[in-house]
Amino acid sequence: MAVQAFDRRTVGLGLLALAGCAAPARTPPVMVNMAHVPPPPLLQPGDAGAALATDADMSGRVTAPVRINGQGPFDFVVDTGANRTVITSELAAQLGLPDAGPADVHGVAGVEPSNTATIALLEVDAVATRGIRAPTLSRSRLGADGLLGVDVLRGRRVTIDFLTDEFRITPSRGPGSIAATLGVSGAAASRLPTNDALTGRQIVVPARYRFGQLIIVGADVSGRPVTAFMDSGSQSTVGNAALHRAVIGTQELRAPRYVVPVLSATGQTAQGELAVLPLLRIGGLDITGLTTVFADLHIFDIWDLKSKPSLLIGIDAMRQFDAITLDYGRRQVIFTLPASSPRRRRPTS
Questions:
Q1: Residues 6+ away with beta carbon under 8 Å from 15
Q2: Regarding the domain delimited by 11-171, which CATH topology (the fold level of the hierarchy) does it fall under?
């Protein structure tokens, strides 16, 4: 399965966190995690679920068609690392969306102000979400019409199928789901399919919430436990400085290493180091030789993870599986292993 090539001269990553200006001081900031990468050189009432054809943007991220207030469809990046849905300022103006006031945006190098807009109705096929307060950023920074965040995905079961190029979103009835709040109806969707072709290939991994995002339980790098987030909005897998020190300390990172700029969608820049992880183990699959960006980003400080080895698992690693399901109701991540390969894979380019 092909994975996009990496530009070793410049690797872009947008890592944003939105905190409403009126939020109490003790309220955790709401995270909006997005990628902004140059082209590579080489549930409401009647929520019945949806299975949609997807596309990949120039960064290899998954996009899905979205309707806003009955208009569209528009291409939104499916961003499992984003707590909030984001819309471009251009599209918000085109649709005449009401201004919802300012907000502080936490980027990789600090904080800068942003505007927000109110989306009365957002539809992903038959799945509808109402009353979204979405931050607005320019299309040149997002690289799409918007980002589909966890405020839409929460309480639901989301599958990204890399074999069929489908994005499926259905209700979840598991513990912690918010079916009543969202008006979710229909049969429970968090049961594994009884498909003989998938027998023995689906690995169910428990997860827990942190700032509204699912953290994978049991992920490790060369046997070292890591705090791992699934981030389909990021082109690259990103490790923090604590993970960098842990791996470098045993000389397990493969040379050569490259210093690269890490670009925020807010226009801020931080320095990162491009290196190759010897072994990432997630969902029953060993991924070897994964190109990873190491950067001590502002977002890790906000998550209080500066001193704990942590990893944002990007679309480059996710594409090593046939499919990945995030069940926000049951707090599970389901990995579908490749059918014709062993449980140890090396990313292809």
A1: 33, 34, 107, 108, 234, 238, 264, 297, 298, 299, 312
A2: Cathepsin D, subunit A; domain 1 (2.40.70)
**pLDDT per position as a tens digit, 201-215:** 888 888 888 766 788
Q: Which residue has the tokens 């009365």?
A: 120
Q: In the predicted model, is pLDDT for residue 282 greater than 90?
A: no
Which three-class secondary structure string do you get for the chain? CECCCCCCCCEECCEEEEEECCCCCCCCCEEEECCCCCCCCCCCCCECCEEEECEECCCCCEEEEEEECCEEEEEEEECCCCCCCEEEHHHHHHHCCCEEEEEEEEECCEEEEEEEEEEEEEEECCEEEEEEEEEEECHHHHCCCEEECHHHHCCEEEEEECCCCEEEEEECCCCCCCHHHHCECCCCCCCCCCCHHHCCCEEEEEEEEECCEEEECCCEECCEECEEEECCCCCCEEECHHHHHHHHCCCCCEEEEEEEEEECCCCCEEEEEEEEECCEEECCEEECCEEEEECCCHHHHHCCCCCCCEEEECHHHHCCCCEEEEECCCCEEEEECCCCCCCEECCEC
Mind listing the pLDDT tens digit for each residue in 34-66? 433 333 333 344 444 444 444 444 456 788 899
Task: Look up residue 118 and give its two tokens.
Answer: 């109110």
* Domain range annotation of the chain: 11-171, 202-345
pTM: 0.73
Share of the chain above pLDDT 90, in %: 17
pLDDT grade for 323, boundaries at 50, 70 and 90:
very high
- List pLDDT tens digits, range 175-186: 443 332 222 222
Fold classified for 202-345 = Cathepsin D, subunit A; domain 1 (2.40.70)
